[in-house]
Every structure is written in structure tokens, then in C-alpha cells.
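Propose amino acids for all 77 sites.
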């Protein structure tokens, strides 16, 4: 079955919307964790957060106030 151009455009807009939301959540997590951990939150860890999947970002977001730097490093392996 062929998709119409309109259907393809709608799907692409939805995908971009979801990815944009996830990117915002990643950057928010980095800002909060940077305030908590300062220099312990290395650029390497920040890069891993920026590449993390949605499930990992949801877990980090749900545990921003309790997660330790050690737990964060283990989670992002």
C-alpha cells in the first residue's frame, strides 16, 4: 500500500515532535545533574545522556533527585 505525501509528512512531523521532546528532556536532565554533581558530570557523561534512549532518559528524569553519580555512570554504560 502506498502512503500519500500528506501521510508521510504527518508521520515525519510526529517523529520530529517526539524527538524534539526527548532532546529537551535530555538537556533538562543534564542541567539539573550538572547543578547536583558539578565537575563530576563530565562531558563524556553528558554525551552519553544526549545519546541515551527514551527509557533511560525517563528513568533518569524520574530519579533526578535521588540518583548517585555512580548509578548514573552504571546506567549509561
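Proposal:
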Amino acid at each position: 500500500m502506498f502512503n500519500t505525501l500528506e501521510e508521510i509528512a504527518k508521520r515525519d512531523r510526529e517523529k520530529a515532535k517526539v524527538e524534539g521532546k526527548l532532546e529537551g528532556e535530555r538537556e533538562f536532565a543534564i542541567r539539573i545533574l550538572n547543578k547536583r554533581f558539578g565537575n563530576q558530570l563530565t562531558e563524556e557523561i553528558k554525551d552519553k545522556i544526549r545519546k541515551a534512549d527514551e527509557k533511560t532518559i525517563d528513568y533518569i528524569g524520574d530519579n533526578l533527585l535521588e540518583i548517585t553519580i555512580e548509578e548514573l555512570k552504571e546506567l549509561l554504560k
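The two ends are 41 Å apart (CA to CA). The helical segments are 5-37, 43-51, 54-62, 69-75.
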